[in-house]
Amino acid sequence: MRRVLADFFAGLGPALLPWRCLVCTDPGEGALDLCAACRRDLPWNHCACARCGLPLPRPAPRCGRCLGHPPVQASTQAVFRYAPPLDRLLPRLKFHGDLAAGRLLAGLLAEGLAGAPRPAALVPIPLHRSRLRQRGYDQALELARPLARALALPLLANALQRGRATAPQSELDARARRGNVRGAFRLAPGIALPAHVALFDDVMTTGATLAEAARLLRRAGVARVDLWVAARA
Ligand SMILES: [Zn+2]
Ligand SMILES: [Zn+2]
Question: How far apart are CA 42 and CA 194, in angstroms?
Fold first, then answer.
């Protein structure tokens, strides 16, 4: 695991020195924008439902909700809980284009996902074009690209496309979120999908967006869809 992270940063070549912790500004540990203390305190989501990634008191193959309503995905790898410092690092990437935060997060994700069941391809959830225009970049893709490279996975960056525009999910409750994302995606014409795909997004809240994309992939003949997310709210 540690080696995956070291290889990942070595692959980036010489960078600005000295490394500073992006969370507390203390000196970083090794070639990492994170100090030893902040690294120790990272909210890894090890105790979770294997099916939906929901944080639980202890790891379980299914939570109560997944027993009652089995979700479309075979498994969910939510690397972190959405807690400090993820609640600061992810918005820094998302709203401020902080590439150092993105690089650190991608490295930590590569470490956290190195032991996960290996899909044949990684498919990022696309941002809608109108929001891409406002923001200038797509944070899920900015994380998925270095992650795919670190794990030597094919990245199908354009496999999913946004269909109709949807309202920002953050403004809706769980029920409205499901309706809001219905038909939100379409597949790129002529795209060839492998039998096992991992969908990637930065944050999973109710999971409605990811589930909608997963259903589309399953309907298109993908036998197994896993969800990979940076943080689970
Ligand atoms: Zn620190
Ligand atoms: Zn569950």
Answer: 33
Q: Structural domain boundaries of the chain?
A: 2-232
What the block records as the tokens of 96 is 């401020």
Q: Name the region of 189 (left: φ>0; alpha: ψ -120 to 50; beta: rest).
A: beta
> Which residues, by Cβ under 5 Å, contact ligand 1, an ion?
21, 23-24, 26, 35, 38
Residues 56-86 pLDDT 10s: 999 999 999 999 999 999 999 999 999 999 9
**Distance from Cα 80 to the centre of ligand 1, integer Å:** 17
From ligand 1's centre to the CA of 98, what distance in Å? 17
The CATH class for the domain spanning 2-232 reads alpha beta
* Token duo for residue 17: 């020195």
Residues in the chain: 233
